[in-house]
Amino acid sequence: MRPKVISDSLKDVAEGEQCGAGKGWTMSLPRCPMVRLRVCRFTFRGLVFFTVAVALLYGFLLMDGARSAGKPPWLELNTCSPRNNVAFLKTHKCASSAIQNILFRYGDKHNLHFALPVTGNYFGGGRHIFEAGMVRSSPFNKVTPNIFAIHTKWNYEEVKKVMPEDTVYFTIVREPTALFQSLFDYASIGERAGGLTLDEYVRRNPIDASRTDGYVGYNQMTWDLGMPLEDMSNLTAARELVRRADAQFGLVLVAERMDESLVLLANYLCWELRDVLVLRVNSLRDEVRRGEGRGHTVPVSHSLLQVTHFVPPAVQVFHQ
Ligand SMILES: *[C@@H]1O[C@H](CO)[C@@H](O)[C@H](O)[C@H]1NC(C)=O
């Protein structure tokens, strides 16, 4: 009896191993002889493994089907090449200093050339419409510039004359009343009109009133886009300006949608997202924004100096 028991149990063990019953496997179940089914019987663990295996197989088959139907868009590789010739209309009080800073840093990093004025941080001082000669006469412009990002009163045809053929053009806009409130404080418009509040100033001055310093005032984006003073109340001229801008700029960012705008910008220029990281530059302090206290915001030149690390050497020269 004893040897038989031993040999039987050895046989059971051997067949059990073969069927994988001891580990709860079910894959080899059909290979088990009917008489030994009790050894290879379904265990709860086996059932779970089987279910998971079928689910995985089904999943793989589904993925295979998706692959053969073409890659999903998020798997497509970005095949564009980075734009190195870029012109930006720097509109007043539209977060454009932050954008300018992005362009300066990128140009500095990639050893590009900048369109820079003879002195100051404007082409034409803000009053005069841009002319190619303003770039060409500058001692900083010995070669064709790659980056145009300095304040000016926009003149597309003239900017095109100084930039390479494959230049891409973009600008940034902001809701006009918020812009004017910011500008009113920033340029001390009320103060310089004899100490007027914003309300008083708006009541007393028509839309085509003379501009502070000859260039700052109502509808600043319209002015920056090239509108002459005599057309500031001409709706036909305004519509034409918008239509022209639409044709000239490949991308228009929106200051109120900065995050989305920056992602679009990186995409438009085919740059890395890390290239469009920003600092908040030259913005109203929060207490001024809330209406507490008078505005003493940082002038443009100082805000540029605060980020000296990122400013090309030639720009630093004209701020000294
Ligand atoms: C308004 O602008 C249009 C388009 O530029 C021009 O033809 C028209 O003469 C202007 N009207 C006035 C009153 O200046």
From TrEMBL:
Q: Superkingdom of this entry's organism? A: Eukaryota
Pfam families assigned: Gal-3-0_sulfotr
Q: Which InterPro entries match?
A: Gal-3-0_sulfotransfrase, P-loop_NTPase
What GO molecular function annotations does the UniProt record carry, in alphabetical order?
A: galactosylceramide sulfotransferase activity
Q: What's its membrane topology?
A: Single-pass type II membrane protein
Any one biological process term the GO annotation gives:
glycolipid biosynthetic process
Please list every transmembrane segment annotated in the UniProt record, as residue ranges.
42-63
Q: Does the keyword Transmembrane helix apply?
A: yes
Q: Which UniProt keywords are listed? A: Glycoprotein, Golgi apparatus, Membrane, Signal-anchor, Transferase, Transmembrane, Transmembrane helix
Name one cellular component (GO) term: Golgi membrane
Subcellular location(s): the record lists:
Golgi apparatus membrane
Q: Which SUPFAM superfamilies match?
A: P-loop containing nucleoside triphosphate hydrolases
Its family remark reads: Belongs to the galactose-3-O-sulfotransferase family.
PANTHER family hit by this protein: GALACTOSE-3-O-SULFOTRANSFERASE, PUTATIVE-RELATED
This protein is called what? Answer: Uncharacterized protein
